[in-house]
């Protein structure tokens, strides 16, 4: 051992746990609520819900140190999504208002079957000092390792939800194949359900259906049929005095009015949200002939379908090919009127003459006339020629063009990182957090009355949350600009990969680069690129000249 160093006996003193519980616990009991949910509205499930509510109310009220904060219960709601769970959302709001400290619930699957939703909600509640206790899994989300365990268990619950969805889907299809099904008459004009759940004709509503078919076969348009029904004060199936053309069209194409039934017209595309879409061959359909009493003869029904098809062919708008039709033109859904904000529609002028011309025109102008919007049409060939000019201008100066754009975004990011606003907010957050800690210490030492502490603590917590929200909004702007920078790099690479300038319009290039076109005037256009960049182009258009002069 070196001279001057003396080995002394060292005694280890265990550290004291100085972590403080939520300061509110020194003043009051823990405010506890419960959340219950059943998936169907059946009598059996309703009784189960009542039992759960009674159990939690009794359990919380009998627990020493707990204060009853209510029971929130959703009935007949699936756990796969949050949007329709009214009581669940009301409970979260109560937590945000500081009325709840702890939530009790039966299990993760009762709370949320979507893993992402579950974790997000738990994190949000944890950040505002609210815990969730899952009885079956014995997890308290304020525990140190709770999030890891919770993520594993909620993923399992999500898989269970997927399996249930698949089993339900299989069961429905099996019943369809066996002919075991019933059709609901809710919002279904013309029919009622008898005690055996069979469709029977509603004589009064049936007259309305017959009238609609008769008038359509006699050459009246949907608009004319709608006007006639409203003029005669005939109500819709929901009791409304105003008819929609889409509702009349649905009646005219519904095969159930001629006694048949096509099953599984729609399918569920997301088992978590329950979102549905038209079945376009992704799943089998089942057609049942002469399933119930008809209101319309098969002959008249087929005549109506034939008329509808002829009209669709005439206007290039086949119902079964609607998506393809809407997206087959590069400018569809891309041109916006700078005057009223409506989209432009493609139109053909002088379709049978040699002077046939394809133009894009404001929908407000088309539907309501010049008095509502005075924007004139833009020639299709001109639009394409202008885009070619814009692309070539950017291509020839691409290095300088994209560098200037990227530099501007980076300047904004750097300015945001150092801006006085963020620094001030961060200082305030630090300052208020220090005040809260000092307030808690004084309360522990007994230097403050309970009422004084409670008032000061709540004021500080509210102020702290306001500054945190402000800080989050500033951070969001940073993310927005970073995303624009990434898009800019992708668009730059796309342009650099081209062989050179273009001599004619290219659908693929347009689709990859352009978010929208804003028509300021028919000869002044703004091209909004997908990276946020805007290029204005003004030009002169001479009468009789196609494209640009």
Automatic annotation (TrEMBL):
Q: Which PROSITE patterns does this chain map to?
A: RECOMBINASE_DNA_BIND, RECOMBINASES_3
Q: Which residues form a coiled coil?
A: 422-477
Return the protein name: DNA integration/recombination/invertion protein
Print the keywords alphabetically.
Coiled coil, DNA recombination, DNA-binding
Q: Name one GO molecular function term.
A: DNA strand exchange activity
Which Pfam family, an example, fits this chain? Resolvase
Residues forming the Recombinase domain are 188-316
Q: Where is the Resolvase/invertase-type recombinase catalytic domain?
A: 31-179
